[in-house]
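Intended use. Records like the one below are meant for learning the mapping from a protein sequence to its folded structure. Do not use them to infer anything beyond what is encoded.
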Amino acid sequence: MPGSKLAADLWINEYISEYDIRQHGIEEILYKGQTKYQQVYIVKSGDSGKALVLDGKWQSDTGEEFIYHEPLVHVPCVMHGNPKNILVLGGGEGATVREALKWNTAEKVVMVDIDQEVVEACIEHMPEMQQGCFDDPRTELVFGDALHYLDESEGEWDVIISDLSDPIEEGPSFALFTKEYFEKCKRALKPGGVFVVQAGPVAPAEMHLHVRLNKTVNAVFDHVVSYTTQTASYGSPWSYVIGTDKPVDMCPEPEVVDAVLAKQTTGSFRMFDGVSCLGLLCIGKHIRDAIASETTVYTAANPPKFFGKGVASAD
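Structure written out for the chain above:
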């Protein structure tokens, strides 16, 4: 490339759309495998640090995972105020559980992931993510299907965090972004419980998934909240959707949020506090307008699907 000095000879090309590719330069492959469910890479990638890649889709990296995981966990927990029982569906790297355990109110945190090989590879090769969270006596790690687990759980959880891999048709998660799945999650919540799902990119050309997920969650819950965070490694701002049956304060006072965090949590936060909580909830007018005009609801018969897989190639 004229005028540029490249430090990588191996690249992961992540297909974003029919027209866009996101390239990640790789220094070293730490782990490569094909599980029953998906292709797995754990790599070292320059400024991004270590990264987990599933079916060619960049899941998270040690360089900026806090920008994704802190909002995912702490916005719904702040909205609940006193989460004791927290269920994490997916969450293979362990960072979501790590953040949930920062709440000193948490008495039980259960993580259900279908792919044991991915979790074990992350524990071995990316200990920076889970930081020993699976050894905490409050944690229970379950390898199994989230849908089956939810069938056995009713009125049990204060907060449910759906931290699933992207809905690629060939992958294990695409059916878990549907009305039927969200209904199971609602039944598993206690009164006043809060549900959150990672809900895809919100760059203008890509935000249809998020907009439709908002509508789908809204078909199940009385109160729905969209919020976003700035994830550079995904090539787009990323989003979440909260569902709950209690009213939500969309403009929380930063001082009030900081007081809750000071009283109810232990451990450090890198990006999350009262000011950032308010900012995360202030989504753009173009997203709000798109949600208002959307009518599609994802169902088991019509689930969402991300575009394509990525590939690794030598330069």
